[in-house]
Known about the structure:
Chain A has about 750 residues and is α/β, with parallel strands linked by helices.
Amino acid sequence: xxxxxxxxxxxxxxxxxxxxxxxxxxxxxxxxxxxxxxxxxxxxxxxxxxxxxxxxxxxxxxxxxxxxxxxxxxxxxxxxxxxxxxxxxxxxxxxxxxxxxxxxxxxxxxxxxxxxxxxxxxxxxxxxxxxxxxxxxxxxxxxxxxxxxxxxxxxxxxxxxxxxxxxxxxxxxxxxxxxxxxxxxxxxxxxxxxxxxxxxxxxxxxxxxxxxxxxxxxxxxxxxxxxxxxxxxxxxxxxxxxxxxxxxxxxxxxxxxxxxxxxxxxxxxxxxxxxxxxxxxxxxxxxxxxxxxxxxxxxxxxxxxxxxxxxxxxxxxxxxxxxxxxxxxxxxxxxxxxxxxxxxxxxxxxxxxxxxxxxxxxxxxxxxxxxxxxxxxxxxxxxxxxxxxxxxxxxxxxxxxxxxxxxxxxxxxxxxxxxxxxxxxxxxxxxxxxxxxxxxxxxxxxxxxxxxxxxxxxxxxxxxxxxxxxxxxxxxxxxxxxxxxxxxxxxxxxxxxxxxxxxxxxxxxxxxxxxxxxxxxxxxxxxxxxxxxxxxxxxxxxxxxxxxxxxxxxxxxxxxxxxxxxxxxxxxxxxxxxxxxxxxxxxxxxxxxxxxxxxxxxxxxxxxxxxxxxxxxxxxxxxxxxxxxxxxxxxxxxxxxxxxxxxxxxxxxxxxxxxxxxxxxxxxxxxxxxxxxxxxxxxxxxxxxxxxxxxxxxxxxxxxxxxxxxxxxxxxxxxxxxxxxxxxxxxxxxxxxxxxxxxxxxxxxxxxxxxxxxx
Amino acid sequence: xxxxxxxxxxxxxxxxxxxxxxxxxxxxxxxxxxxxxxxxxxxxxxxxxxxxxxxxxxxxxxxxxx
Lengths: 759, 66
């Protein structure tokens, strides 16, 4: 996998972008995190969260000019969240964390002079002292606080400021009050660095480069002056911005002392615009909890906190149960899958993650940045296959089915009866042939009747191989199809399965590939009853970008009088039925979630134009029609139980035999009579869930009966047979019943037994 | 809970009762000893359903991800 490509994808995921409140705050207070504590009534945790970003919590909770509230997305439904008041409530009701002490045990031997005891100077002082530097704070006046001292007791109680300033003592700052500095520049003789944070008074700036209006000229990113050891914080009306300016200068000095770049990676210091996407449409408006003059009581603060919508981008997570299931978000998933790919020795913990994705592309459709998981998951699978690390059990069963479709039991290519050349070929695909073989016959007859000689091609398009990461097999399957069409003389293929349509359009751009639905929309339909009822339409995920097929399906339904109900996720935003990407084989539990979420969208019965989607829905008890059911007047078929895996094979075999006998007068030789097996619903479900075919059960019993190699259960006299045709051992518990057998249980394992002569 | 008595299994060919034996199971180049019932005559082994679909399946999946 390509590391640069992976990084580019990771960077597009917005999940880790900060909410607007945090990005707008000059010191990036984690308001969302703080409010999350408050929502749970945890005022101590909330205050701790607030204090992480602000040096003087009691003061700033009172005096902050709250730019965060102007950015708050709650304002789009109701009013902005009263973040400032919530900060005040944290201070009022939370247990103050211990005073800050120097973070390092060893005091560093660098000394810094800070000139000016306003918010900027105080912030720089505390930040530098906390890092272990020796700091001397010069203040011209007798008290610290600068313009804070102009505020009334109601605006800022003197006791709040005093309590906040206590940390200067614990941090070991040397205070020089009533000590006007004559020249900041001159202090560089005695100190390793100097911060000029003198507000409006500019008397001490001689020798430093000034702007036209007599202010210190500062680098906007770093606060650097014309002298390498002097940094500045300009006068500033916003208290919270003043904190940021002091912090910026302190951070530059720390970088200077560490001989690090002054500028690298600082673009997002101070306010910036977040890229986070937050859905606010559909939010129930809620007004702010009124603020009493004494500030919020605990319960009022909790109530106000619950108004916060905790901005986060969940577009793909809400749309896809697979992405939500793993508890994280695409940026992390992509990294996990990439790291998984890089492991040489050890457990590949993200194999299942990469193999579960339906590769349906919905995430890319709903993502504000159009980031999808499919490419990464597909590349990971291809890489696993190339390295021999693809778990053998994941796709083997599905690929055996592909082999079956391409083999003598199903594969067939014929010119229209009585012709030797077919410009047009009908390719019904595996699923429709397995699920509704009679409809394949009806459609083929209709096409020949209205389009003239149309050839027939039964086989697989190779999509399952693509999904399994088997590029080689996908390519050879496609090449076989092309060779077949060339043999028939075909220039146009009509497909009845959206996955085949997509596979052929992508793989054979030189060929005209038409979906059956756009073709049928232009034909005369057989007479059939009108269906005056609402049906919820499910566009198959392979038809996501096939607008003409989507429109044709709707037009055909309308011709039968159907009122179409659109689900929330529809057309290019449609969902997968859980077969895509072979998800239901790789991770049946997540596949179940996917299909259930889709079915919960609408109450109406569903209609779709993919046989696999229909069967997946019907298997969960949702009455679902295939478009052909509607067109051929078989609307009663909506509760039809989908065929199991064995039945799907037999249906394809029988379809081929019927077509050959009926249209080309070449009946197949009679196959062996199938064994008379009695299989109840429990065992039938076991066969499906454990991916065991009835032919494997028959082979196990036949071998046991022929050789006598079987076990007898003394408790009930049942026989136990086992059979290992290739990589799987199948076990069957059975008993004779007339000329046949009753199957009581089936199971299997891949492990090989050795040390005995048995299986 | 009282554990159910072990299933009595007989080899249809040898007409002998299967007895516990240590058998080696192999998967993807890994080998493990497992206690299974085996015919003392022909060595035919029984893998019960619960073992195959439980522990054995788990180990198979674990090894497949190695």
